[in-house]
Amino acid sequence: MTRDPHIELVLDEEGFRRLRSLWDEVLFKADHRYPFQSYEWCKAWWDAFGAGNQLRILVVFDGPLCLGICPLYLKSVGPFKQLAFLCPDRSDYLDFIARGGVRDIVIGQVLSYLASRADDWDLFVLNNICWSDKEREFFLAAAKKNGLEVASRAYTKSPYIHINMTWDEYLAATGKKKRVRKKERRILRGGDIEVVHFKGSENDKCGPAENLFEEAKSIERRTWKYIEGNPRLQGDCKTEQFFQDVFKSFMKRGWLDLWFALVGGTPRAYAFSFVFDNKVFAYNSGYDNSFSRYRLGSLLLINRIRDAFENKLEEYDFLRGEEEYKFEWTNNTRRINEYVLFNRRISSAVGARILVKMKWSLARSALLKNLRYKIKTFLSRRGMHSRE
Length: 388
Fold this sequence. Notes:
- The protein is built from 13 helices and 13 strands.
- It has 388 residues and is an alpha+beta fold.
- The chain folds into 2 domains: 6-155 and 336-382, Gcn5-related N-acetyltransferase (GNAT) (Aminopeptidase, 3-Layer(aba) Sandwich); 164-313, Gcn5-related N-acetyltransferase (GNAT) (Aminopeptidase, 3-Layer(aba) Sandwich).
- Strands 1, 2, 3, 4, 5, 6, 7, 8, 9, 10, 11, 12 and 13 form a 13-stranded mixed beta sheet that branches.
- Strand 9 (256-263) and strand 10 form a beta hairpin.
- Helix 8 (209-220) crosses helix 10.
- The protein is globular.
- It starts with 5 loop residues before the first strand and ends with a helix.
C-alpha cells in the first residue's frame, strides 16, 4: 500500500452502477458491516427517493486499491445544502464503508476532501451512528484537524443479544426457561395457529418476493400503526417501491428472513429480519389488530430468537429503539448518536443553529414531540386515504 490515497467522486447513475462489485469487495472486508450499507439497500433507496437530490459518492483509492466508500447525497433544505449518507430515514445503522485496518485513513481523506470544498455544502448530517469511544474521538480529532466543527447528541440505544451458548443454556442463564416455554404453549393452545418461516435465497421455493411483500403489506394495513397513520412498508409509492426492491434483492442474496403466524390458515402476523454477516437484524414486524389476544407478535419473536441460537449466529440485534419488550431479553445495548459537521462559512453556522440545534432542542420537549407525532399522523392518514 502506497499510503498516497486520493478520492474519486461519483455523481451519476452510471457511475453508481459500476461500483457494484467494488462495493461488495470493500463492505465484506470492513470492520463495521450492516445490511443498510449494502449496495442493494442504498441503490433501492436512491432509485425510490433520489429524485430532486444529487449523488455525492466519495470513493477512496490508494493507487488501484479501493480503501473505502462514503455513499452520500446532497439535498437542499431551504437555503441550505445538506449532505447525508444514502438512506438516512430507513437505516438503523449508518457509517463510512472502509476496509479493515484503513478506516482512519478513509475518514481522514473524506473529511479533508469536504473541508477543501466547503463552498459545496453547509451541513453534513451523520445519523444513526454506532461508534466506540475510540472511533468517536478519532472522528472529532479529524474534524478539528480539517477546520470543521461538530455538534452531536445521544439519540437512542440499540439492544442486542450476544449469542455464545445454546438456546437452552441462554434460557437457563436468564431465568426464562419455564416462562418462555409456558408462554409459547399457551399461545399455541389459543387457536389453530401455525408459524411459517421463509429463508430468502435464490434456491428457496417460497414464491416470488413480490408476493411475500404483498402479504406483509396486507397484514400491516390491519395493524395499530397503520390505523394511526404510521405504517412502515407503505403509505406512498416510493416507500413501497423501496421495500419491494429490497425484498427482491435481499432474497436473491439470501439475506431476507421472513416469518408469518397463521390463524386458521390465514396470515395474521408477520416479521422480517435481515441475516447478514452471521447476525440477525430484526427490522420490522406487525400483527392484525383484531387478533391481538393471540399474542402472535410474541410467538414470532420467540421463534426468531430461538432460530438465531439454533443456527449458531453471532448476534440477534433488536436495532434502534428502547421499547420495553427488548429489555425482557437482554441488557446489552449500543449507543446510537447523531453528529453534524459544519464548516466555518456563515451559511453553515446559521444552518447548524437553525436546522440542528433548534431541532434537537425541540426534540427534548415532550409536548412538541407529541404535537409533531399528531401532525405526522394526520398528514400520513390523508396521504393513505387519497391513495385508497
